[in-house]
Design brief:
The structure holds 2 protein chains of 2 kinds.
Chain A lengths: L4 E3 L2 E4 L5 E6 L6 E7 L6 E7 L2 E5 L6 E5 L5 E5 L8 E8 L13 E2 L3 E5 L1
Parallel strand pairs in A: 2-11
Antiparallel strand pairs in A: 1-3, 3-8, 4-5, 4-9, 5-6, 7-8, 9-10, 9-11
Chain B lengths: L8 E5 L4 E6 L8 E7 L6 E6 L2 E4 L4 E4 L5 E6 L8 E8 L13 E6 L1
Parallel strand pairs in B: 1-9
Antiparallel strand pairs in B: 2-7, 3-4, 3-8, 5-6, 6-7, 8-9
The chains are: A mainly beta, B mainly beta.
Chain lengths: 118, 111
């Protein structure tokens, strides 16, 4: 059973450029969340996708956008890259649609994409 | 979302039991307490989750007092491979809620 996969592993971009990161959720999961982790910090929630729509969003500017496809895979797009966007970008999947009340779903994280902006 | 406070770092010798305490004074009724482990350049990995009293799995135990304002992650007989950052999270139930990570506790295990 494949876990969460992300591509590419590493990426180097120049300020002002645009980048697209990709994520395939764990088999059976329908919800994908994206996190940004700066060096030495905990992951920070960017947004969450379910049924191909953005359901929740963290405190990130509109330069960060995403998409979810019918097969539940997802993309994270960042426009007009800044030096401060350099971070490890993590994708996590979970089975939102099971409708279990009052349970805090375990989220499965991928290995991340290391983005360096120069 | 309830804020959590945990030690920045801890050191331990291999074979010892390690207890990491997390404070979450404003935890809400529907909140669960969850711990994640993260190795360098990897995504966080779920360790354990609980609501009250004690939860134990093959990896760790989680102790939650009656007032639920704190919790303690207990790692029995740590090994060098347990060197990682451990995050305590308190989250709303019912949906795949966004996870709010703090800076975590960096555990260093040595011989």
């Amino acid at each position: 059973d494949a876990g969460v996969t992300q591509s590419p592993t590493h990426l180097i971009k120049t300020r002002g450029q645009q980048v697209t990161l990709r994520c395939s959720p764990k088999s059976g999961h329908d919800t994908v969340s994206w996190y940004q982790q700066a060096l030495g910090q905990g992951p920070q929630f960017i947004f969450q996708y379910y049924e191909e729509e953005e359901r929740q969003r963290g405190n990130f500017p509109d330069r960060f956008s995403g998409h979810q496809f019918p097969n539940y895979s997802s993309e994270l797009n960042v426009n007009a890259l800044l030096l401060g966007d350099s971070a490890l970008y993590l994708c996590a999947s979970s089975p939102l649609g099971q409708g279990i009340p009052f349970s805090y779903y375990e989220q499965y994280f991928g290995p991340g994409t290391r983005l360096t902006v120069t | 979302l309830a804020k959590t406070t945990q030690p920045i770092s801890m050191d331990s010798y291999e074979g010892q039991e390690v207890n990491i305490t997390c404070s979450h004074n404003n935890i809400a009724t529907n909140d669960y307490i969850t711990w994640y482990q993260q190795f360098p350049s990897q995504g966080p990995r779920f360790i354990i989750q609980g609501y009250k009293t004690k939860v134990t799995n093959e990896v760790a135990s989680l102790f939650i007092p009656a007032d639920r304002k704190s919790s303690t992650l207990s790692l029995p007989r740590v090994s060098l491979s347990d060197t990682a950052v451990y995050y305590c999270l308190v989250g709303e139930s019912g949906t795949a809620s966004k996870l709010t990570f703090g800076t975590g506790t960096r555990l260093q295990v040595t011989l």
